[in-house]
Design a protein that fits this description.
Elements (H helix, E strand, L loop, with lengths): L6 H7 L3 E6 L10 H9 L3 E7 L10 E3 L6 E4 L11 H13 L5 E4 L4 H14 L5 E7 L15 H13 L5 E7 L11 H13 L3 E6 L5 H14 L6 H10 L25 E6 H7 L12 H14 L11
Parallel strand pairs: 1-2, 1-6, 2-5, 6-7
Antiparallel strand pairs: 3-4, 4-5, 7-9, 8-9
Helix pairs in contact: 2-7, 3-7, 4-5, 5-9, 5-10
Amino acid sequence: MDFLKLPILERLQSAQTILLAGAGGGYDIFAGLPLYFALKAQGKTVHLANLSFSSIYASNGKRIGEVNEHVVRVTHETQPELSYFPELYLAQWFWEKRREKVPIYCFDRTGPRPLTAMYQHLVRHLGGVDALVLVDGGTDSLMRGDEPKLGTPEEDLASLLAADALQGVGSKSLVCLGFGIDVFHGVCHHYFLEAVAELTEKNAYLGCWSLLPHLPEVKAFSAAYDYTRKHMQSSIVNSSILAAIEGKFGNWHETTRTEGSELYINPLMGLYWAFDLPAVVERHLFIRELAEHDEWIDLARAIFQRHLNLEKREWKHLPM
């Protein structure tokens, strides 16, 4: 491998058709936009998907798949416009600002078993994909299950299970953006760094690189996010990431949603961290036990109960 090339980029170099999917719901797909624009610039076919917090079945987006396992294809023409629909506004931004018809494929927030079927339906509909990249806005997807707090694990674990079970895909990667953001949800980042070290030992850490404000891919990411937050509620994660990329530091509040809390905006928030997805799943202590859940609420209860009964490791401050 060339010293000047990251393993994740080497992995994607051989893929021509790539599915880029937001793991944690809501705005997560936005964290994948810089990678989307970079891959498109290389002439690759890149499809965007997202586990959605929106009422996607209330829209007229095209249904793909079986009953109760629908993927909804959202475009700039999708109606109605809901109060919370980041995928729709992203599609509208692509059309209004770039004259590009870019559909966003939305998965309903559900349990791992139907979500796996949704992924399989989508891959079949797309005619197959060479690589899947799951994107996490934040880094709590690297928690193994016995940390003091897990952040918001339900959507991440469902997405990891679905992606891991997906058939007919050449490579599966997890990319995280936003180191330090999840402290807002009680995550101890000592354990994220420990996870990176353990995955490094298994040759499953695929590299880390910076998003810089002058890059066209980053400028497009910022523009898409600014357009969307003018139409609906802003994203704490993406607001923090972009503030960090732009050079803000410390207790900087880009959105009123964080007022009353103390933030630590810093340059590490603008780093992409990449991992082999099956290795991340394999490292988790109880994720396999969750695979048969159909409903999101049942998944949430199972995670809560399993975490409650585990002996938790103590909080550790970063010694620096």
